[in-house]
Design goal:
Distance between the termini of chain B: 93 Å
Strand order of the largest sheet of chain B: 1-6-5-2-3-4
Number of helices of chain B: 3
Shape of chain B: elongated
Strand content of chain B: 15-25%
Oligomer: heterodimer
Number of strands of chain A: 7
Largest interface: A-B, 53 and 53 residues
Order of helices and strands of chain B: HEEEEHEHE
Radius of gyration of chain A: 24 Å
Largest sheet of chain B: 6 strands, mixed
Chain lengths: 139, 167
Amino acid sequence: MELSSPNVKADINVTPLVDVVLVLLIIFMVVTPMLQKGHPVKLPQTTNPATKPDEKNQILVCVTDQKEMWIDKDRMTEADFNTKIKETYERNQSSTIVIKADSRLTYGDVKKTMMTIKGAGFQSVGLIAEKKPQGVGAK
Amino acid sequence: MGMATGGGGGLNSDINVTPLVDVVLVLLIIFMVVTPLTQRGYDIDIPREAPPTTVPPPTDTKQVILGINEQNCRIVEPLGPAGLPTDCKVRLNQDLVTLTQLATKMGDVMKNRKKEEKILFLAAEEKLNYEAVVQIVDIAKSGVGDDLRIGIVTDEKLATAAPAAGM
């Protein structure tokens, strides 16, 4: 170290770097879950839905208000849907199925989907709902 | 001013808490963001075509059927911001129950049951709005808790007519 300037620090100042990295981390943490999984639908809102942890071999079925069927990221016709679900069951019987159905559908539409899934061999499905923002809605 | 030598004129003995605060705040934010966004929903048991070996008992006197029909609860159109209609009634086996009573009633019925007997069979008319049906199920479930399993009834007639015998 030079004698004339004994106060010079040789450390790299990492604080701004850490700041930036943390902010990036936060941005990603916030944005990622907002990307709704599967095809976007208007989920039914209820007061107290139980949490359903997203399992590894979970199959996500979406039914839009136009009654379009989606499995994960793929749009299906009804016939394709039947075969695909059957195939999935035969490949892995332990996989779980969850349905994201649009809240504007009728119960019959959703029941029909559940019956198709039953026809493939599954014995249980999950219906995905959203927690109602507080203070809204009648009891 | 020189380098601190022995006597420690320039020594700073405070703990630097800034990094700690950074980490804690970030953790806080992570949890705040992640907690409300976890996937939520209901598990439904779907009736299976009876496997040849196990035939279910023809009349199970303990079964509880939740019948939802248009006649007692007008929920055909998608729900508005008001939610379920206030005069809505549902059928719990033989009894007509208002939605406000439903949770307590369900609690009473299921109170003394073993975990595997806590099953509610859902019989709703097919033309009803899906969100409304899910909300009614939610109310029924709130009276019992997470132990309650939900099954669906294939026969639509049970939504309107009470089961003949039993409870």
